[in-house]
Specification:
alpha+beta; 4 helices; four-stranded mixed β-sheet
C-alpha cells in the first residue's frame, strides 16, 4: 500500500556560481551534487533521501518558458536580471544550528535565526547573500510541524469564520 504524503520534491534556484552553490547545499543535506544536464551550466544538489529531495541550481538570469505544442520546458537567459528573487523555501536539514552557521560563515553568507510570527523559528540562510532558504534543524522542524499541524490549522481557521 502506498503511503500518501504531500511534499515538495524539488525546487530550483538561481546562483552566480551554480556548481559551488550546489556543493554547499549538498553539504547541508549530507548528500551529493552533480551537473544538471537539462540546462547548460546548471547543477543539482541531491539529499539522497527516500523522497528524492533535490535543488536544481541555475545560472542567474535563467528563465523557464513553456514549450510550443508538444515541446517540454525551454530555457533562455535574461541579461537584465535582478540578483534577488521572491521565491524561497523552508527546508529541513540534518545539521545543528552551529553547523549551519559555520557553513554560512565559511562562505561569507548571511545567516540568522529568526522567529516567524511567534509560531516557530527558522534559520535564514542567504545563498550568495541573495537567495533565502529557511533552514530547520531537526528540533526546528518539529517546532514547525507542531505549529502547522492539521488540528492547529483547523482550530485557527474555524476561529476566523
Amino acid at each position: 500500500m502506498l503511503h500518501e504524503i504531500n511534499m515538495i520534491h524539488h525546487i530550483s534556484l538561481p546562483a552566480q556560481n551554480p556548481p559551488h552553490v550546489a556543493q554547499v547545499l549538498a553539504e547541508l543535506f549530507n548528500g551529493y551534487f552533480a551537473p544538471f544536464h537539462s540546462n547548460a551550466d546548471s547543477y543539482v544538489a541531491l539529499a539522497a533521501d527516500e523522497y528524492g529531495t533535490l535543488i536544481e541550481v541555475y545560472p542567474l538570469g535563467t528563465e523557464m518558458l513553456p514549450g510550443k505544442d508538444n515541446e517540454p520546458i525551454q530555457y533562455q537567459r535574461n541579461e537584465n536580471f535582478s540578483p534577488f528573487i521572491a521565491t524561497h523555501a523552508a527546508i529541513s536539514v540534518p545539521k545543528t544550528q552551529e553547523e549551519i552557521e559555520n557553513i554560512a560563515n565559511r562562505e561569507g553568507w548571511r545567516v540568522l535565526r529568526c522567529n516567524r510570527g511567534g509560531f516557530f523559528d527558522v534559520i535564514e540562510f542567504w545563498v550568495e547573500n541573495n537567495i533565502l532558504l529557511e533552514l530547520a534543524t531537526p528540533e526546528l522542524a518539529q517546532q514547525y510541524q507542531a505549529a502547522l499541524a492539521p488540528d492547529k490549522l483547523a482550530e485557527l481557521f474555524a476561529a476566523q469564520n
